[in-house]
Amino acid sequence: MRRLALAFALLMASASASLAASDVDVTCTIMLDAATGKTLIEEGDCAARTTPASTFKIPLAVIGYDTGFLKDAATPVLSYNKGDPDWGGANWLRDTSPADWMRYSVVWYSQRITRDLGRETLERYLRGFKYGNADLSGEAGFDNGLERAWIASSLEVSPREQVAFLRGLVSGTLAVGPEALEKAKRIVESRAVGDWTIHGKTGTAFPRRADRSFDYAHGWGWYVGWAEPNAEKDRTVVFARLIRTRARTKTSPGVLTRDALFAQWPELAKTLRP
């Protein structure tokens, strides 16, 4: 574990000059063979739950397609409204399709889905997925579960639960229609990394202080998804990596986590034996 954490920290440092090796904790790295469920790598505390942040968009996409709110990668197109979250820049201010929503991690699009479906429906699906604590109540006293339960709030999930859900997604064993699974998988970003294709979603969140301001020095960074070796089309590895920063970073913790895993992947993949 120490060698893996050190390698990751060095890669993180190279990705951002503002981030020293001592400024990040690799909380967990876990990888499973999707077909067998065999654990290929498990390093760190992979059982503790924390906020899923924008990785929640993957189960939300499955729910959205299964309920019919989402139709395909291009439909529905929704428009930004004044007062919607706008901190994501220009890509959050324009008309947005499901593919755009996932690619640019548009929070207000998630909120349109959650408000339409409601807490009862969402929690029923999440319990069926065994996705963390399935708690969409939000912050106590603020009635904001449908706006931000998944962002440093009531909904929490462990890395082990993330990969269990992802295994169900790629193996087709989640209790939803197969079309919903295929449509959800299609809008998750894919990258060619070495001899593999990696499909994944980043997630970033920051804890709130007592005065409700955000603590940007101690952010969570997720990267979760699945990977397929180009030479073995019938093999899939599901993975989750979670980090926690100790200093504020110029690049979001989720993007740093993803980019560092990509840089490490060619060597890491050599150890991924079924």
Secondary-structure topology with pairs:
Layout: H1 2-15, E1 24-33, E2 39-44, H2 57-67, H3 98-104, H4 107-129, H5 145-148, H6 159-171, H7 178-186, E3 190-193, E4 196-205, E5 220-229, E6 237-245, H8 253-268
Helix pairs in contact: 1-8, 2-4, 2-7
Would you kindly provide a written description of the structure presented here, covering whatever features stand out?
- The structure is a single chain.
- The protein has 274 residues and is of the alpha+beta class.
- It has 8 helices and 6 strands.
- It has helices at 2-15, 57-67, 98-104, 107-129, 145-148, 159-171, 178-186, 253-268; strands spanning 24-33, 39-44, 190-193, 196-205, 220-229, 237-245.
- It is globular.
Largest sheet report:
6 strands, antiparallel
H/E element string? HEEHHHHHHEEEEH
Counting DSSP H or I runs of 4 or more residues, the number of helices is: 8
Quaternary organisation: single chain
Beta-strand content estimate: 15-25%
The beta-strand count equals: 6
Keywords:
single chain, 274 residues, alpha+beta, 6-stranded antiparallel sheet, globular
Summary of the model, kept short:
This protein has 274 residues and is of the alpha+beta class. The chain is 35% helix and 18% strand.
